[in-house]
């Protein structure tokens, strides 16, 4: 850069210094192609001027103390920007921009390297803002300090930068806010109002004007507005929605509309309440309304209006045709991003609804359950495949299941729902935790075949699952794990540790040596707390996963047996959960195990002999009387018990285990043996000697079934006492 004589004006100084940065031909030349045979600059155009000769370049000189030493802000676009000598330059900036700009100024002072073309807002005296392109240059020798150039109304450059920046987020509110900020380059106040369908993620269809309802999505600048004026989150009155939608729909084609003065605006609104709600302040104002339009879905005629943007400014600066074209171009590009955000919101809501439907419901008198699920933010990759569930099993047991399906979005949600429902069905059918994981392993493999998985662009291979089954009578927990993080068990004395079972690969991991899913048994005395979770709760990029599990163990150890369990779960997540925005689901399930009181259950181990059924009736009869069962219910229970024991002796092998459990008015009879044959209810002939026992059981009970054990099977039946 050649030294500039000290006698040169600040404007000339900056015009020469920015020769390498400002396109010849003014701001418009940034986007327009040069005409053949010309250099892109007419005789009437000079540096710092637009096509119509209006100056757009202003200059502010700063001393080393960052106070204004002089300025040239006489051009019309800078009207209202006060740069008095001796004032701090930061007084021209919005408060939130002061730290960043100050850092930039000091860096140029120190390094003498220019900082060029920063998009910046300046405050006018009336509180409105002006968007400029700001460059910071070291002052030309022999002067000391800085020279700050401000290029106002660089609309095409601003349009390009805004269109590039908008759409980087899939959050509807952030997209609308980015659009409103960009629109300030054309006015003093900008608002974005979106249709309800956009917020809810519903499919957009051709709307009748009377049915359009709008909600304010963004409003800039952020200031204290008069009472009654609509701010973000407010619903527009139905009449206001109809008027705005009708204004931009002419001849059934969405178009930009300009209302040139306040009188015309008030005539159009025709209601003082609507004027207070929509018009910013009491001063003279004009407005340009530009619709957010997308093509309608297939089979829908014509475009669909997603919302309306309003740009307000002083009436003495009317909107010209070129500005309206720029506004329409920017809003049209944004409309596509808004529609993408709407679709993402819809998918997010669908997955979240499925996820929450799978969350555990209330526990029982033997176990208390609380859960917390925090999905990933809508702007992330999408809701993940984390899930937890708890549900009662036959024989007074309770299943606790946690899983983490690979991936995010609808593909992961579909796999998650299928695995969760299948796990519940198999556990309720009597399969043990290890056998259920084997079936889920096969399911994941099938989900990944050519037809079902890869063709849809999604693979569930590597999903994890952990199943725990709690027996409140024996106070034991069975755990089987497929690649999931280990549960944490807190004992009544406050000691805690992970239930580390033999490691097993995740579901569908065919590339490793296949081993059976091991089932491990742990003691869980009354008052114990079982903790199931997913990796989003304990993962930390700065620490190992073991450290995260250790922190979780320390935190859940502090949960008191008398604490409200749901509140305790929220506290745990609050202490361990990662900061916003969440990039992975956070899932936690706490299960406080109370157990079944000894006086409400009884278990006998009897030899497999012909008189075993009679022996079982003899042992059970006095117990049923102590439980105050009515005579008819007691007789029915003894008959069911006799039939179950007889079948176990006749078709099973080895000793017979009899268990009776009272839970309120419900009585559960369970008879186990070492046989592996499954009793089946079948229709027999009148003269058949066998097969009548199960018919008796079926008639006298509310439900019955079989569950498989390590040593054989157990047939159970439930009766109302």
> Residue share in helices?
25-40%
Overall 3D shape: elongated
Nearest-integer average pLDDT: 78
Biggest sheet strand line-up: 2-1-5-4-3
Model description:
The strands form 6 sheets. This protein has a 5-stranded antiparallel β-sheet with strand order 2-1-5-4-3, with helices on both faces. Strands 7-6-12-11-10 form a 5-stranded antiparallel β-sheet, with helices on both faces. The chain is elongated and about 110 Å long. By secondary structure, it is an alpha+beta fold. The chain contains 17 helices and 27 strands. Helix 13 (545-556) packs antiparallel against helix 14. The termini are far apart.
Short description:
By secondary structure, the protein is α+β, with helices and mostly antiparallel strands.
Which terms would index this structure?
single chain; 721 residues; alpha+beta; five-stranded antiparallel sheet; 27 strands
Strand-helix topology:
Layout: H1 10-17, E1 57-62, E2 68-72, H2 98-111, E3 115-123, E4 129-138, E5 146-152, H3 155-165, H4 172-183, E6 189-195, H5 196-200, E7 214-220, H6 238-248, E8 249-250, E9 253-254, E10 257-259, H7 262-269, H8 272-278, E11 286-295, E12 303-313, H9 321-357, E13 367-374, E14 384-393, E15 397-408, H10 409-428, H11 433-447, E16 464-471, E17 476-482, E18 488-490, E19 496-498, E20 520-523, E21 528-533, H12 535-538, H13 545-556, H14 565-576, E22 586-593, E23 601-606, H15 612-626, H16 631-651, E24 656-663, E25 666-673, H17 692-700, E26 703-708, E27 713-720
Antiparallel strand pairs: 1-2, 1-5, 3-4, 4-5, 6-7, 6-12, 8-9, 10-11, 11-12, 13-22, 14-15, 15-16, 16-17, 17-20, 18-19, 18-21, 21-22, 23-24, 24-25, 25-27, 26-27
Helix pairs in contact: 3-9, 4-9, 9-10, 10-11, 13-14, 15-16, 16-17
């Amino acid at each position: 850069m050649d030294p500039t004589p000290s006698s040169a004006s600040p404007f000339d100084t900056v015009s020469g210094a920015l020769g390498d940065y400002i396109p010849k031909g003014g701001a418009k030349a940034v986007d327009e192609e040069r005409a053949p045979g010309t250099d892109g600059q007419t005789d009437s155009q000079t540096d710092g001027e637009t096509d119509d000769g209006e100056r757009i370049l202003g200059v502010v000189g700063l001393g080393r103390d960052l106070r204004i030493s002089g300025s040239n802000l006489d051009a019309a676009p800078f009207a209202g920007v006060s740069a008095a000598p001796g004032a701090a330059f930061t007084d021209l900036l919005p408060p939130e921009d002061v730290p960043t700009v100050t850092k930039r100024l000091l860096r140029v002072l120190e390094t003498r390297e220019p900082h060029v073309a920063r998009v910046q807002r300046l405050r006018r005296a009336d509180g409105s803002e002006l968007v400029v392109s700001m460059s910071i240059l070291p002052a030309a020798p022999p002067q000391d300090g800085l020279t700050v150039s401000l290029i106002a109304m660089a609309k095409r450059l601003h349009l390009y930068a805004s269109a590039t920046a908008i759409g980087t987020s899939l959050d509807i509110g952030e997209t609308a806010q980015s659009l409103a900020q960009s629109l300030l380059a054309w006015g003093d106040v900008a608002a974005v109002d979106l249709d309800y369908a956009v917020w809810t993620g519903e499919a957009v269809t051709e709307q009748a004007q009377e049915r359009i309802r709008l909600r304010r999505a963004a409003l800039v600048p952020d200031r204290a507005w008069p009472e009654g004026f609509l701010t973000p989150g407010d619903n527009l009155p139905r009449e206001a929605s109809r008027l705005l939608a009708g204004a931009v729909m002419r001849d059934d084609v969405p178009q930009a509309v300009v209302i040139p003065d306040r009188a015309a605006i008030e005539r159009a609104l025709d209601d003082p309440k609507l004027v207070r709600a929509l018009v910013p302040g009491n001063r003279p104002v004009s407005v340009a309304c530009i619709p957010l339009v997308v093509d309608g879905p297939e089979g829908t005629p014509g475009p669909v209006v997603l919302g309306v943007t309003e740009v307000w400014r002083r009436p003495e600066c009317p909107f010209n045709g070129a500005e309206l074209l720029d506004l329409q171009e920017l809003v049209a590009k944004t409309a596509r991003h808004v529609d993408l955000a709407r679709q993402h919101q819809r998918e997010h809501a669908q997955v979240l609804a499925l996820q929450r439907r799978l969350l555990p419901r209330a526990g029982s008198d033997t176990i208390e359950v609380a859960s917390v699920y925090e999905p990933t933010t809508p702007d992330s990759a999408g809701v993940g495949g984390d899930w937890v569930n708890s549900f009662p099993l036959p024989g007074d047991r309770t299943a606790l299941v946690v899983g983490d399906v690979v991936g995010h979005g609808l593909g992961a949600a579909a796999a998650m729902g299928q695995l969760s429902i299948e796990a519940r069905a198999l556990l309720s059918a009597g399969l043990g935790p290890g056998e259920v994981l084997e079936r889920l392993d096969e399911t994941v493999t099938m989900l990944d075949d050519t037809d079902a998985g890869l063709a849809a662009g999604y693979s569930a291979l590597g999903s994890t699952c952990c199943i725990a089954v709690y027996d409140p009578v024996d106070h034991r927990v069975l755990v089987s794990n497929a690649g999931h993080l280990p549960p944490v068990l807190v004992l009544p004395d406050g000691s805690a540790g992970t239930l580390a079972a033999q490691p097993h690969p995740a579901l569908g991991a065919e590339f490793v040596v296949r081993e059976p899913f091991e089932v491990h048994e742990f003691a869980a005395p009354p008052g114990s707390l079982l903790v199931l979770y997913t990796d989003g709760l304990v993962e930390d990029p700065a620490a190992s996963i073991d450290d995260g599990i250790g922190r979780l163990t320390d935190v859940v150890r502090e949960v008191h047996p008398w604490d409200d369990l749901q509140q305790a779960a929220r506290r745990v997540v609050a202490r361990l959960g990662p900061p916003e925005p969440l990039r992975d689901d956070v899932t936690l399930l706490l299960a406080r195990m109370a157990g079944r009181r000894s006086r409400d259950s009884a278990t006998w181990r009897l030899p497999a002999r012909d008189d075993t059924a009679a022996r079982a009736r003899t042992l059970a009869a006095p117990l049923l009387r102590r439980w105050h069962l009515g005579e008819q219910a007691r007789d029915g229970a003894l008959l069911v018990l006799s039939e179950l024991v007889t079948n176990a002796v006749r078709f099973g092998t080895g000793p017979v285990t009899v268990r009776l459990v009272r839970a309120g008015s419900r009585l559960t009879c369970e008879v186990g043996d070492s046989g592996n044959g499954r009793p089946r209810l079948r229709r027999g002939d009148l003269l058949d000697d066998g097969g009548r026992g199960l018919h008796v059981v079926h008639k006298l009970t509310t439900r019955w079934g079989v569950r498989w054990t390590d040593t054989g099977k157990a047939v159970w039946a439930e009766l109302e006492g």
